[in-house]
Amino acid sequence: MPIYVSPEGNPEVWEVKPDGYYEVDEWDAQNPPSLPTECELTQQRITEIQQQLTANDLASVRPLRAKVAGRATEEDEARLEELEDQAEALREELAALNIKLDECLTQDT
Known about the structure:
Blueprint: E1 3-5, E2 11-13, E3 22-23, H1 24-30, H2 38-59, H3 61-68, H4 74-108
Antiparallel strand pairs: 1-2, 1-3
Helix pairs in contact: 2-4, 3-4
């Protein structure tokens, strides 16, 4: 059975298209999805950075364990330095994005 979209945007199954209803393609063309707001994009990036920082913390466990045990190799030291450089850059970006998000949310109220 075909699916038609009600004037309220609800997809429904009907044998025959009711008056005032739309074909799915017709509804989609007239009602495109809204683009994310600046605040939503900022929040999304903040979440991505937080996830990357967590991943960096987890990636540092093995080389740190080797360092504490006195068995760190040059590769362990290089990996820790690389992870810390990444984390530092991400924390700087995160701080700027948090300020931007605060401003964005303040404007919305």
